[in-house]
Design brief:
alpha+beta; globular; Beta-lactamase; 16 strands; eight-stranded mixed sheet; four-stranded antiparallel sheet; 12 helices
Length: about 375
């Protein structure tokens, strides 16, 4: 082979051959990573999923005839007109709801009320809600139960890890949260096709209760515990039964799976619309009550939104919910800037969905908006 032919081989043929091999091995995590490259808000179209059906009758927020746009806002030194700001920083949906009335509703980049957006890590907060309900109903006995009570196939060292350790992200799990490493645990969780196998192979890198470390693996173990405790009922079916239908969601949703008929990716990937995400915020704004019916135990909501730094718990992260930046507000957050924000002081809920965060502190911005509209 002459030098010219060899150069062409290296430059053109070899990369195409590698790509062909990756495409051919469709079950390979690495091929998924190479093909999709990085999480984006179209990911609900890329993975198998289970449908979560809406009820026959929906409950809707009230709306104003003319929605009041926010005044010019300042965020991280940025001062511009509201919709210009949303577009500049890659938002596709923004809702601001006070006293059950939508006072701001904006959609951009060809998105509208019916557009589906993945929750990403906002799903962690939903898993926490379902765990709280499952404990109330006796599927799970206690947050103090060891992981191996429900997943005996896991390593013996997980006898020391409790459900509460998982909820608080203090399990000591050995897990690489990097989203840019195709060989890391986050990529395996997101692009892999066997979450149960991954969970069962989990190891600890430190004693549980020693240090907080945000890892999606903790939430996936919770999801597997929930799935195991429910028996034949899937986590998606439980969500439909306990939240989606009772809350009168306006649209069907879906939960992405590791493979067809497989396990829910509980650490991420609940796919829904902005208004339905807002109803999850309303549920927690009202301490688990929905129009007079207690859907989630009030004590569970209070435990999930109170400050606790015992046993290495992080001051601003409780039971898979983020606290602050104010004294009483809290929120669910996902990568690329997905937010369900709740401000009990001003009776306000906000939802922001986007293509990326844009470097904006969205929780702080929503807290500022709550203060502005709270009076």
């Amino acid at each position: 082979m002459d030098n010219f032919t060899l150069m062409n081989w290296k430059k053109f043929v070899a990369p195409l051959l590698i790509l062909f091999i990756l495409l051919s091995i469709s079950s390979c995590k690495l091929s998924r990573f190479v093909i999709y490259n990085f999480a984006d808000i179209n990911d609900h179209k890329k993975f198998p999923s289970r449908t979560i059906e809406k009820p026959q009758e929906s409950w809707t927020f009230a709306t104003r005839d003319t929605l009041k746009p926010p005044r010019n806002i300042a965020a991280d030194g940025v001062d511009m007109e509201w919709r210009e700001f949303l577009k500049e920083y890659k938002s596709v949906a923004f809702l601001l709801i006070k006293n059950d009335t939508i006072i701001v509703e904006d959609y951009l980049y060809d998105y509208d009320r019916a557009s589906v957006v993945p929750s990403f890590s906002m799903a962690k907060s939903v898993v926490s809600i379902l765990v709280g309900i499952a404990i109330e109903e006796g599927y799970i006995e206690s947050v103090q139960d060891p992981v191996t009570k429900y997943l005996p196939e896991m390593r013996e060292e997980f006898d020391q890890v409790t459900i509460e350790h998982l909820l608080q992200m203090t399990s000591g799990l050995d897990y690489n949260e990097s989203y840019s490493n195709p060989f890391g645990d986050a990529a395996t969780s997101y692009y892999g096709r066997n979450l149960t196998k991954m969970v069962n192979k989990s190891k600890l890198e430190m004693q549980p209760g020693e240090r907080y470390s945000y890892v999606s693996g903790d939430t996936q173990i919770l999801t597997n515990i929930l799935s195991k405790s429910l028996g034949e009922k899937s986590v998606s079916a439980y969500l439909e039964e306990k939240l989606w239908k009772p809350l009168g969601m306006e649209y069907d949703a879906s939960w992405s799976l590791d493979r067809k008929d497989g396990m829910e990716k509980g650490f991420c990937c609940l796919n829904a619309r902005a208004r339905d995400f807002a109803k999850i915020g309303r549920l927690y704004l009202n301490k688990g009550s929905w129009n007079g019916e207690q859907i989630v135990p009030e004590k569970w909501v209070e435990r999930s939104t109170e400050l606790d730094t015992t046993e290495a718990s992080e001051w601003n992260y409780q039971y898979q919910w983020w606290l602050g930046p104010g004294e009483t507000d809290f929120y669910a957050e996902g990568i690329l800037g997905q937010f369900i924000y709740v401000n009990p002081e001003h009776n306000i809920i906000a939802v922001r969905l986007g293509k990326k965060t844009g470097g904006v502190n969205w929780a702080k911005l929503m807290a500022n908006l709550a203060d502005a509209y709270g009076t």
